[in-house]
Amino acid sequence: MTVINTKSPTTTTSAADAPQPIPSLTPESIVEQLRAISSQLPEATPMTADQRNNVRNHARTARNGEILQTTISMVGTTDVISNAVGHDADGVRQLCDNSNRWAVVEDELRSLLNGISSANLVRRQQLAAIADTAYGVGAQLVRYPGHAALVQHVAEVKRLKNLGRRKRAPKTPQSPAPNAPVTPKA
Is position 49 within any domain? Predict the structure, then answer.
């Protein structure tokens, strides 16, 4: 007679095998990590807006793959061209490969920035909603003598809101006084 074991084998998981919660990063720790990464990228120096525009305008040819591949072939054809540009065809291909690989990093950083910016925008919206609600409730409560401590706060918020709504006087150029004496030149 054969006995079939109908119990499933028991498995034990140790604490090391259990999924560990991912620690939440703080803004300060992210800034620290970004600065550490930035210090390891010597070619990542910021440019002025004018410098970026000049380089971007000049780099438009590199976005056209056919032109780029044809010029890489041209560089590989003769030493005269490779000496003139200061790179051989393999060096230009490597530069092209590096540019493409760093474009992926650039896209990921843009996406990360968009996510962080969006989350912070939502936080600001939440703060504005809280401030609006607090002011609205406070404005209602100051009508009652039991909430006299709120009067100064509500008045200050009202003053600050009115400052933001004021229209600024348009700047007009200073013109000379109409009746100013004119002295003749000799």
Answer: no
Is residue 80, in this structure, part of any structural domain at all?
Answer: yes
- Answer yes or no: are the C-beta atoms of 128 and 120 closer than 8 Å: no
Residue pLDDT, tens place only, 7-43: 555 555 555 667 777 778 899 999 999 999 988 887 8
Q: Which residues contact 158 (CB under 8 A, 6 or more apart)?
A: 139
| 8-state DSSP, 172 | -
Say if residues 93 and 100 touch (Cβ distance below 8 Å).
no
Look up the domain containing 144 and give its range: 62-165
For residue 185, tell me if it sits in a domain: no
Hey, what are 127's tokens?
């703060």
> Measured between alpha carbons, how far is residue 129 from residues 145, 146, 164 in Å?
26, 25, 17
Residues in CB range of 26: below 8 A, 6 or more apart: none
Q: Does residue 41 belong to any structural domain of this protein?
A: no
Tokens linked to 83: 């000496």
pLDDT single digits (tens) 48-66: 999 999 988 888 877 777 8
The answer to whether the pTM exceeds 0.70 is no
Residue 72 has φ and ψ, to the nearest 5°, of: -65, -40
Q: How many domains does the chain have?
A: 1
